[in-house]
Amino acid sequence: MDDPGRRRALADAFMIEFMGSTTWRAMIAVLEGAFPGLGMAATLSRRTDEFRGMVDGLDRTASSKLGLPTWLDDAGMVFDLSAHLNARNPVRARPGRARASRPYAGAFVIDTLDPLRYHRAVGGPREPRDLPDDTLPAASGEDDDSGVVIVANLTSAGVRVLDSLALWRYAARVVTGTLHEPSRPRTRARARRALRALRRAVVIDPDLGVGLCLQIDTGHAPRCLLAFAVDRTDGAAPRFVRP
After folding, report:
1. Closest to 106 in 3D by CA, of 180, 199, 190
2. Shortest CA distance to 128 belongs to which of 148, 99, 152?
3. Which of 33, 83, 136, 150 is the least crowded, having the fewest Cβ atoms under 10 Å away?
């Protein structure tokens, strides 16, 4: 990340790949439901070149747009949650165990805040397809390519400074906690295979209006190369930031 040229190349490659993925489509579906009335699907259903014009490089102005102090480390962007750890609204009571739903092949959604509600996929199924007990949310091969979109409070990660590794550990904890049932040992292998297949992870915090996007390479090293903020009050397009 010390090399600006390499940093831009990594972020460009991720954005091009991400926009063509089922994880991107699942993310749009979740945003359409999490922020109703803002036209998220229409705003984000653009060509790659149009979308790149909506993305700012990380600087002080871009950090202020996210609403979180943000800087770079060796793996991408880092976010300071200090102002929100004790000042935000109490974490919502979970009405039940989180469920994994798959709106598109190759991507699945986990809502930890309201597991009984599914953010309808635009142009997709009207009802969630909850994963049967013995069905993987991703293909079973280690080299398969899949992604997850998680709706959660970012402060639930339990850290003040959220870097790429801490965000990945939190996402992995949510995936494992959702797919693995201690009373059913066979689900442990299901969770492990799902984690090995993940190549993209998006965590969306509706309360903060922030989303963080991870790339997980084949060596399972995470890099946070894209983030965005949504302002419910002005109806503007999401503000995307990249390294």
Report:
1. 199
2. 99
3. 83
Distance of CA 80 to the CA centre of its chain: 17
Residue whose structure tokens are 């992995």:
172
DSSP 130: B
pTM of this structure: 0.84
Q: Taking Cα atoms as reference points, which of 239, 199, 210, 67 lies closest to residue 152?
A: 210
Distance of alpha carbon 187 from alpha carbon 140, whole angstroms: 13
The phi, psi pair for 179, rounded to 5°, reads -90, -25
Q: What is the pLDDT of residues 38-90, one digit of tens each?
A: 888 888 887 667 777 778 999 989 899 899 999 999 999 999 999 998 755 54
Positive or negative, the Cα torsion across 142, 146, 151, 157? Answer: positive
For every residue of 52-94, DSSP letters joined together read HTTEEESSHHHHHHHTS-EEEETTEEEEE-HHHHTTSPPPPPP
CB-based contact 26:121 (threshold 8 Å): yes
